[in-house]
Amino acid sequence: MYAKNTWKKYEDHSDEVMSFNEDYKRFISQNKTERACVKDAIEMAKNAGFQDISCFDELKTGDKVYVNNRGKNIALFIIGQKPLYEGMRILGAHIDSPRMDLKQNPLYEADDFALLDTHYYGGIKKYQWVTIPLSLYGVVVKKDGTVIDVVIGEDDNDPVVGVSDLLVHLSGEQLDKKAAKVIEGENLDITVGSMPLKGADKDAVKANILKLLKDKYDMEEEDFLSAEIEVVPSGPARDYGLDRSMVAGYGHDDRVCAYTSLKAILDSDVSTYTSCAILVDKEEIGSVGATGAQSLFFENTVALLLMKMGIDSFVKTRETLARSMMLSSDVSAGVDPLYASAYDKKNAAYLGRGIVFNKYTGARGKSGSNDASGEYVGHIRSIMDQAGIYFQTAELGKVDQGGGGTIAYILGNYGMDVIDAGIAVLNMHAPMEIVSKVDVYETYQAYKVFLKDA
Ligand code: MN
Ligand code: MN
Questions:
Q1: Most-buried pick from 226, 257, 390, 414 (CB within 10 A)?
Q2: Does residue 219 sit in the same domain as residue 254?
């Protein structure tokens, strides 16, 4: 069903939409880093009968297996009825979100405050990240290899931290600057304390923070060198709108597609082709590194699966990938009525109109996009219509308005068919993003349909 208000489909059973979103809200409220997402995904996968790859000497139809890459990237599979090298049905989403990361040497004292220096991660409007409650979330790795989990600012009894901004009374000069410069990247520093350590003289406030960190986490200042602490908006996801039709929360991009992809495979049975969901890291900074989509992890994993089916072949590995079909599960820009002129309304995504297919994204003449083939789009339309899924098609804004990337083209490099398919978001990359509950649910249904495709 093309571009129709999807609430109509659920008029008489909106309960299932609402209850699915309760679980989704729990997921994004508790998992604000890629590491937390992978940890929870493994827990959920185990409960659904999936096992780590190391538990299998050989793999056969119906086996449910996951492969964990450094706790930041995970691939899950249900081995299908056809041989693996006939291709897979793949859902791929990213679990990193825009934020601020602590620098390696972050802690300093200035004007009787202790502060933590950050480098922002991904594309943000910096002015949106000041004067809001923030949490510190991540790990500190000590020299002996001990990994300390840190989550400060999420429990009701926790303190929060934040980035300050100049009072309006003294902002004449600041308010004349361009919005991109109103808050400078180097000014995104986190205030973490103001009380001096008893008996200390120089940098006594900083010394007090170091003492707190020593007492609570047994960490030294030097341990920041090997820490990965992400600064994220504090607090749980909430219902948005008087009618509770939407979810306000941090990190819908792209945990809303990650969660629905994960749930889709966990709730699926064996189908004709092998089902796969991959949750990747680092999309927001170019899909780089060992845990990003450009890593050979996924290709190596497919080779490993084939090995466990008795096939040790580079050619078959590449064949498996080339014969696969993929939905690059990523969010789309929902039309904002306050800024309607940024969109071509005939080719834009609307909150509440179901899953969004982006044939291409990109910028400046489709540059950097995957641009799925008409044949593949035709196939996807057909299976969605057969299953009664409500869907829409969109571009990311007007021509030459801007643009964005996804992981679609990276998997497309293998010669597989890929299309971007996900959920429309308002306020994308802001500390509080908005999605429609009915889109979350319909997208989950659409992902299940795709995995079943024979
Ligand atoms: Mn993004
Ligand atoms: Mn995204």
A1: 257
A2: no
